[in-house]
Design goal:
Elements (H helix, E strand, L loop, with lengths): L2 E6 L1 H10 L21 E7 L7 H10 L5 E5 H6 L20 E3 L6 H16 L5 H14 L1
Parallel strand pairs: 1-2, 2-3, 3-4
Helix pairs in contact: 1-4
Amino acid sequence: RTGTVGASSPCCAIEMMTSGGPKYDLARFGMEVFRASPRQADLMIVAGRVSQKMAPVLRQIYDQMAEPKWVLAMGVCASSGGMFNNYAIVQGVDHVVPVDMYLPGCPPRPEMLIDAILKLHDKVQATPLGANRLAQIREMEAEGL
């Protein structure tokens, strides 16, 4: 499975779509399809701000993804709430789901997204799977709470 599912805002969404286009060509890494279904994806790219109202939905989508699964927080809005420091916006998606890779920028360039995905590939190669991965996720979630 190489698909991604993403929640996004307009500025990061354009950069994410551009990375899948012919100039940057994510297809050469086997990631040409952005899946709309969490059951077909192993990477969730959270691109843009997450509202308090959307946080439970985002968590539900994460829970519906099959193991093993990874999360990439794209842009400062997903990583830390960005310039939206108010009660309606979650100040970092790591309060909702465990994040494996943070991608800075406002909005981050397509080259940066591809680099972050490739770094996540390297991290996945060294990550334990199965019961060891579940224990690691529980530990990360406990730290996040």
